[in-house]
Amino acid sequence: MRAFEELMAFERQTQALGQIAGRLGWDQETMMPRGSAEQRGEEMAAIEAVLHARRSDPRVGEWLEQAATEGAVEEAHVREIRRAYERARKVPEALASRLARVTSEAQGKWASARADEDWEAFAPVLEEVVALKREEGAALAEGGDIYDAMLQDYEPGTTAAEISAIFDAMRPRLVALRAAILDQPEPKGIVGTFPAGKQMKLTRQLARAFGYDMARGRVDKAVHPFSSGSGMDVRITTRTNEQDPFNCLYSTIHEVGHAAYEQNIDPAYLLTPLGRGVSMGVHESQSRIYENQIGRSAAFTGYLYEQMTAIFGSISVENAREFYSAVNCVRRGYIRTEADEVQYNLHIMLRFDLERALMAGDLQVGDLETAWNDRFEADFGYRVDMPSNGVLQDVHWSVGLFGYFPTYSLGNVYAGCLHQAMCAALPDLDAQLAQGVTETATGWLRVNLQRHGGLYAPREIIETASGIAPSEGPLLDYLEAKFTDLYNL
Amino acid sequence: MRAFEELMAFERQTQALGQIAGRLGWDQETMMPRGSAEQRGEEMAAIEAVLHARRSDPRVGEWLEQAATEGAVEEAHVREIRRAYERARKVPEALASRLARVTSEAQGKWASARADEDWEAFAPVLEEVVALKREEGAALAEGGDIYDAMLQDYEPGTTAAEISAIFDAMRPRLVALRAAILDQPEPKGIVGTFPAGKQMKLTRQLARAFGYDMARGRVDKAVHPFSSGSGMDVRITTRTNEQDPFNCLYSTIHEVGHAAYEQNIDPAYLLTPLGRGVSMGVHESQSRIYENQIGRSAAFTGYLYEQMTAIFGSISVENAREFYSAVNCVRRGYIRTEADEVQYNLHIMLRFDLERALMAGDLQVGDLETAWNDRFEADFGYRVDMPSNGVLQDVHWSVGLFGYFPTYSLGNVYAGCLHQAMCAALPDLDAQLAQGVTETATGWLRVNLQRHGGLYAPREIIETASGIAPSEGPLLDYLEAKFTDLYNL
């Protein structure tokens, strides 16, 4: 056998084991009995240990040295395997297992600190996490920038400088747009009776309409919406709030964006490094364009308005235009996950700047809460009232995710580029969406982006699909046009 | 670290990975989308390969050589690890993976052959399975008896001669009892409306009443009832038939017997070789005593009669005695899984004799259907009418389970011994069961047997718990007394 083939056979098993670990995570959030957590912790640790050992197996290094590749696909395989191998080899096992232990503990402390509104109870363990992540970052960076090294875990090929340039261009235009909107009267919200069962029925109907293949997936309820798995088994979750059906419906459309990306990758890449979405940012571009540019468009909300009044009866808005306004309402708030399209990126920029400062050693955990609250006030105009609305609102840092937040906004930026190209390519788009037909849009994404999986690097696939280098321009143009119309600015 | 501790740390991870493989199996039967089977096949193969490599890892051999043990628990750990290690080392990897491939194919062919009533379509692949299993048996036996070597996978320490001696003593008494019963008029069955939702509610209530801990388990529907997992995550499945509620209720009680055994093992043995039921026979003794000696007793069925009439209204039997007769009805039939307490073991003896002959080379697969039908007629008095009622009814042989069938009857024999001792120890037993209180009985089993997990060998734990060496006497005495009363013999 060629070294390349031996490498791929080994890698295929590793990918299969990775899918199993992911399915265990799904089970934990949906099906696992509440008394099983401790045993599950050991099971997860066992399979993670197997995965780490395989990723850093010296035979992989030998095969990589000997592997002769033919063509772009084989080269991409080797590129991705090498990246995972080098990453696994750079981080000493003792550090990796200490990080796993401390972040597991920190996540528990974060949850109770958030419930108790007690930042001081969380700060000491976050300090440990930050110290360990800096140590890991230094090992990964090998003398280069720590934060740039961390970004490679989520958005390979990007740098903090690139992201900064984009964010610096976005911030003033978003702050100005937000201020103009909040000067206007708040649109009417929907009010009605939204039984959970009916929401779930509609949400499954929307999932299918957006191209989610239920024969290779399923929709369950969980505390947090997520998508899990690749290839032939990609499952999503949602949740219902009987006062607010948009929570269920739009989180489903969002997760369907992630899930459809995984389902639509060329089956030839199944259980290979190319058989998964190429980066967190590109992944998020799919969930965002499904949720926002398509799902929150005037055309599609017109269709959704008809569906909702048919299912739920009166919902206290009088017509499709009022419904469109309600779906896109911009409100004062503190919480990233509840933010609208305009404010969302401001939440991300705040986290990006703070986490870079933490990793650079320019900001200490002891000063983090104050830094958060000051920055929030500067961008949003009012002060954080309690830690769960501020520095304790997100789980990410407790589990060691530094470098992850900016990929959410990169996803929005990518979605803006893709949407611009899609609109140019599909003159009938709005007419189709107004009928509830999303296949034209999702089909365009499938053909131009999703099917390629990990074949092209993130910037490359966005550029190939949208015809322009990733830039904040299209997103900002879209937001300004949409909200100028919505709010008569 | 002592060699023993290194061995145990490695083994603990292996056990955790084994639990993961089991949970994947559960997912496959309950939750997996129908389009995911092919990918799941690769995932299962990947984790099985990891497990096989770990069980036969040369380091395990070195640790076993060096491990100094202290006390009975450490000795039992080493005994169980050594057994798994030697088994894994004896079977060449090429044979193991060929067996996995051929049995996977054979299971598919069996299912379609059974649906088509086409024995000839299945025979050739069964021939392959038999040849491979004989090869595996020869590798395991190292010159000894092939079938005895196979039995060790399911009932360590037993031999075909021992089982034969028990079965030879059972057969004439069971044949005579069966004949006497079938000379009597058939008792009335229950008739009524049994909605699936109400069956599931009652089945969950019964599961809890029999000591199943729902905080560390769950009940779902599946095509076949089964129990899956050990320790803190033990899940069961059931199924509903709206004409026949006993199918759901008694399969649940049966699976709760398996599940409670796994849940009640000393937590100190969690994720060790002692943290699981010690053998298939001892496992079956628990499911059978829950289902039959307790669940089908006059006392408990009196309680169940009240519950069922309260839930389902009229069920066409007039009183608890008629209900007890309906629950224990002995009917002519062909199918092992539908057989009553009297006839069940005759089905097993048939399979035991045929599979021993196959493994010894005394019977060819080409002659198997005729041999089955002749033996069936000799024991049951009428001829098999179609293959799905005969040689094609069970999945076991297609997946290479030779040596497994006799453990079902061993379980019944063990249950007889345990029940005799339990009745002697608990004079109030019937009074409690008549109130629906099963804790007295299940508590006795927990303390005397279940908590020990794999600490004692199968015969040893039955002897310790019941005070007598395993023997068919108590089971036959119990069956003769029960059915003499039920049928006025």
Helix content of chain A: 55-70%
Largest interface: A-B, 37 and 37 residues
Q: How many DSSP helices of chain A?
A: 20
**Order of adjacent strands in the largest pleated sheet of chain A:** 1-3-2
Low-pLDDT stretches of chain A are none
**Oligomer type:** homodimer
- Helix-strand category of chain A: mainly alpha
Portion in strands of chain A: under 5%
- Taking the alpha carbons of the first and last residues of chain A, their distance comes to 66 Å
How would a crystallographer describe the biggest sheet of chain A?
3 strands, mixed
Spatial shape of chain A: globular
Q: In sequence order, what are the helices and strands of chain A, one letter per element?
A: HHHHHHHHHEEEHHHHHHHHHHH
Number of strands of chain A: 3
Mean pLDDT across all amino acids of chain A? 96
* Rg of chain A: 22 Å
Per-chain topology:
Two copies of one chain form a homodimer.
Chain A: H1 3-30, H2 37-55, H3 58-66, H4 71-90, H5 93-116, H6 119-141, H7 146-151, H8 160-182, H9 196-209, E1 219-221, E2 227-228, E3 235-238, H10 245-264, H11 280-294, H12 298-312, H13 320-327, H14 344-360, H15 368-380, H16 405-425, H17 429-434, H18 439-448, H19 458-466, H20 473-486
Parallel strand pairs in A: 1-3
Antiparallel strand pairs in A: 2-3
Keywords:
about 500 residues, homodimer, mainly alpha, 20 helices
Summarize it:
2 copies of one chain form a homodimer. Chain A has 489 residues and is mostly helical.
Structure commentary:
The first copy, chain A, has 20 helices and three strands. Chain A is mainly alpha-helical and 489 residues long. In chain A, strands 1-3-2 form a three-stranded mixed β-sheet. In chain A, strand 2 (227-228) and strand 3 (235-238) form a beta hairpin. In chain A, helix 10 packs across helix 11. The first copy, chain A, starts with a helix and ends with a helix. The mean pLDDT of chain A is 96. The A-B interface holds A 12-13, 16-17, 19-20, 23-24, 27, 31-36, 38-40, 42-43, 45-47, 49-50, 213-218, 231-233, 235, 270-271 and B 12-13, 16-17, 19-20, 23-24, 27, 31-36, 38-40, 42-43, 45-47, 49-50, 213-218, 231-233, 235, 270-271.
